[in-house]
Amino acid sequence: MSAEANVATKVVTSLVRLSYLHIWEPAAVEEGQEKKYSASLIIPKSDKALIKKIKAAIEAAKEAGKTSKFGGKIPANWKNPLRDGDADRPDDEAYADSFFINANCKTQPGVVDKKLNKIMDQDEVYSGCYGYASVTFYPFNTNGSKGVACGLNHIMKVKDGEPLGGRATAESDFAEIVVEDEDFASPDEDDLLG
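The chain above was modelled as a monomer; its predicted structure follows.
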């Protein structure tokens, strides 16, 4: 792809919710597959400007792939990376009234906070938090499967959210427990001996 086509296929999102994060260690979707870094980007359907930008980048990647990957013709049943959460994940509340994109990469993405400081604490960025993502769309033709995929470049975490995946925080798990200081008083020597 030319540098000009690359600019047309790159998108920096507006605020999205991050899910299925594998940004610290690569993981394989299925046994035997290549391990990659990845993130699912949940985009509210109300964010029409971002959806328009993503659709334009997908079209640019599809057009670039017409000659480089698809043999001169756009396939009738090409795989679209922009998916409808209501249709594809109807049982997952996090994806309701949203589109989503699964983005991945072979090299670790850059992960920064809202002041552009590199985030080192892996617990800081988790499935359910909110941020911006830099992604690039590109055409593919692999084992007869043709379409447009999404490459993950970088993530900027800007705010916390309810953790996804059913995992509670330590604070919420232990919120009801009240520990008095006397619970930790040293036992009498008689109690120890007797």
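Helices lie at 3-9, 48-68, 85-88, 170-173, 189-193.
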